[in-house]
Amino acid sequence: MIKILDSTLREGEQTPGVYFDTHIKIAITELLDDIGVNIIEAGHPAVTNQIYRSVSEITKKCSHAIIGAHSRCLKKDVNLAIECKVKFLGIFYCVSDERLNLYSKNLNQVIEQIVEVIQYAKDKDPGLIIRYTPEDTVRSPWKNVIEVATEAVRAGADIISIADTTGYMIPGTDRSMYDYVKKLKDELADNDLYPEIAVHCHNDRGLALANALDGYRAGVDIIDASVMGLGERAGIVDLATLLTVLATDFNERNRWSLKKIPELYNFVSSYSGIPIPVNLPTTGKHAFTHCAGIHTQATIKNSLHYQSLDPELFGRKSEISLDHMSGLSSIKYSLEKIGEDGLKENIISEVLSKVKDIGQKGRCVSLSELKYVVRSLKEDN
Ligand code: HCA
Ligand code: CU
């Protein structure tokens, strides 16, 4: 069964300008817990005192999910995370040739440091789940990745995460996450090593979800995501879309309380100051709203004509937009909704023209506005 790691509080807080107070982080943790994610990456305690305090507060609250911290490959970062009493530690260190040059270190020196820090963390807390991530995994030389992953697992890492740090992978090409996961699992298995494998996919090319699903099909154990895909640059995998696709199209039914998702998204949007894009799948304002006359006419008869997901999954309903695209069927449907179904045909046509006029100014007519449109037309007639 796939595990979901939510990184809204860590990667998500790396969105420019986003900052969550401790009590907001606790509320987000509780909502994530209600939804049923497995691991919550709560922050990197070495970054600021506030993050240190929030991570410690979050671990004190009872939670079903495993609470984790992010850490550079340094004992001082590990110490701070352990002080916060996390059960999961994500250590990252890049092994691309360019980075090694930048640090003026060779691969062996870096491996030595990684092994030492992982062993140190395991000694301090043998129950700690350790993930090692060769940052920018997929653009680093394969030889470096396999060597460092092998030694990290031998030193005690439980999870190796494949980071597509720059959103570089493309399904079905020689940059396929599916092939990458298979190859990594196979080569580690050749050495009798079977760590859990995670994927962390950035969305620079808009392919984060596609790559994460590629990883899923190749048998990864953990997928990283965040609310609205918040994170560095174009962010990472959007949590709601990931859970929806896994629950409806793959073998992960009934795993998550999807009805809680709108509450989580509205909350995170309010306190991050980042609006939910109207066209974001499942959570966007327009995710289940039909507009053009042909669409609305068919949808009113049978919502499946233009929908392959059931809005009820998220406690939502299909909606019809009233604007310059509307036709008579949208108008009649909406009039019925406001209890005005007995109007004469000439008034209905006038309502349609008025709605189209307003729509041409670039806005939609809400049902509450429609009542007044009808009232004034009735008075004129
Ligand atoms: C970062 C980069 C990271 C790390 C992922 C991980 C990435 O912000 O430190 O530690 O698993 O995308 O590589 O988010
Ligand atoms: Cu990242």
Describe the protein's architecture and organization.
The chain has 381 residues and is α/β, with parallel strands linked by helices. The protein contains 14 helices and ten strands. It has an eight-stranded parallel barrel with strand order 1-2-3-4-5-6-7-8, surrounded by six helices. The chain has a two-stranded parallel sheet with strand order 9-10. The structure holds 3-hydroxy-3-carboxy-adipic acid and copper (II) ion. 3-hydroxy-3-carboxy-adipic acid is lined by residues 11, 14, 70, 90, 92, 133, 135, 161, 163, 165, 200, 202, 232.
Can you lay out the helices and strands and say which pair or pack?
Blueprint: E1 3-6, H1 22-35, E2 39-43, H2 49-60, E3 66-72, H3 75-83, E4 88-92, H4 97-102, H5 107-124, E5 129-133, H6 142-155, E6 159-164, H7 177-190, E7 196-201, H8 208-217, E8 222-225, H9 239-249, H10 261-272, E9 289-290, H11 293-301, E10 319-320, H12 328-337, H13 345-359, H14 367-380
Parallel strand pairs: 1-2, 1-8, 2-3, 3-4, 4-5, 5-6, 6-7, 7-8, 9-10
Helix pairs in contact: 1-2, 1-10, 3-5, 5-6, 7-8, 11-12, 13-14
The protein binds 3-hydroxy-3-carboxy-adipic acid (HCA) and copper (II) ion (CU).
The structural class is alpha/beta
The backbone outline, from C-alpha atoms, is: elongated
The major pleated sheet works out as: 8 strands, parallel, barrel
Question: Roughly what fraction of the amino acids lie in strands?
Answer: 5-15%
> What share of the residues lie within helices?
40-55%
Bound compounds, please?
3-hydroxy-3-carboxy-adipic acid, copper (II) ion
SSE series: EHEHEHEHHEHEHEHEHHEHEHHH
Q: What's the N-to-C terminus distance?
A: 64 Å
